[in-house]
Write a structure and sequence with these properties.
heterodimer; A: seven-stranded mixed beta sheet; 7 strands; 38% helix; globular; B: mainly alpha; 82% helix
């Protein structure tokens, strides 16, 4: 377990819903509803990172989901939302770098603003590759770095501060997904080339 | 492109406010006395710092995350440079800063519109 990252997110848990639960979630609601609609009823789904469970509101009903997070404080806050979900969510405290699921366990993996915070993103994505079945789908809703000046410079500057208590703002997540061995199917920009959904697949 | 009135209003108010306050802060601290280059540099840093604090702890809570933070950082940075560039007093700097916020927001909306949608990268 990466205790440094765990402590960082434990500290953030107290104010997370205030900071992220109103403006950002309301703004992203239509895009997230469309994004999570790709969760299939017949699929064994892995979701990371659950956080305080804000995303559960967008999950379609009657899905079988395993949700992990590195922060026990975040998961404590998620319990209420997990209980109200019309389906099954198996919550586990786990570090994405060291997941102990058997290989090729899941049909679909969903992430939501996760890989801005995973300390070693390519290693984390390779761990996802391992537990995803061949042909399985990776769906990511992420904010990433930009290729567009001057926004790319701004994101680097913001990361100097934000990484101390939260996420990095300048990650090349699409490249990281490709470097981890996934095949990119579709990248959909929602705001500039910063907020986006990424649909990838583990090749057969 | 964002069309929901609440968020368009939020973007507008966030960028205009950040621009105006950043320019006013830079002008009131008399950064232009550091010379044009020194003043622009100091104003830029002040503007970015102010924008980061304002968006993280206030504006983004109501109006969104990256959609608010990123253009506001740019508005703050450019508006902070304005007093040293044009030797402006506080009131003039506020007006110029507000305009800079508007221009940055318009540019961001246009860029976002151009980049929006799907593509295989």
């Amino acid at each position: 377990m990466d205790f440094h990252t765990q402590k960082k997110w434990d500290r953030a848990a107290g104010t997370f819903d205030i900071m992220a639960g109103r403006g950002p979630e309301r703004r992203w609601r239509p895009a997230k509803e469309e994004f999570f609609a790709a969760m299939r009823e017949d699929a064994n789904i892995l979701f990371l990172a659950l956080g305080t469970g804000l995303d559960i509101a967008y999950f379609p009903a009657r899905r079988h989901i395993t949700a992990i997070d590195i922060s026990p404080k975040m998961l404590e806050k998620a319990v209420r939302r997990v209980r109200t979900y019309d389906g099954s969510i198996d919550v586990q405290l786990m570090d994405v770098h060291k997941m102990d699921f058997p290989k090729e366990s899941f049909d679909q993996i969903f992430t939501s603003c996760t890989f801005c915070s995973v300390p070693d993103p390519v290693k984390g994505l390779r761990a996802l590759y391992r537990v995803l079945k061949p042909g399985g789908e990776l769906h990511m809703f992420e904010h990433t770095g930009s290729r567009l000046f001057p926004y790319n410079v701004m994101l680097h500057v913001m990361t100097l501060v934000s990484s101390a208590f939260g996420p990095d703002m300048d990650r090349p997540t699409v490249d990281n997904v490709r470097n981890a061995g996934f095949e990119i199917i579709r990248v959909h920009n929602l705001f500039l080339d910063v907020v986006k959904t990424i649909h990838a697949r583990r090749p057969f | 492109m964002e069309r929901r009135p609440w968020f368009v209003f939020g973007d507008l108010i966030s960028n205009v406010l950040t621009g105006a306050l950043a320019a006013a802060l830079a002008a009131s601290l008399a950064v232009s006395e550091l010379g044009m280059i020194g003043g622009m540099l100091a104003g830029m840093l002040l503007g970015m710092l102010l924008a980061m604090l304002l968006t993280t702890f206030c504006l983004s809570v109501f109006f969104g995350a990256m959609e608010v933070m990123l253009p506001c950082m740019l508005s703050g940075m450019l508006a902070g440079m304005a007093p040293a560039m044009w030797h402006l007093g506080v009131q003039q700097a506020m007006i110029r800063g507000a305009w800079i916020g508007l221009v940055v927001l318009a540019a961001t909306y246009i860029a976002s519109m151009v980049l929006a949608g799907s593509g295989r990268e």
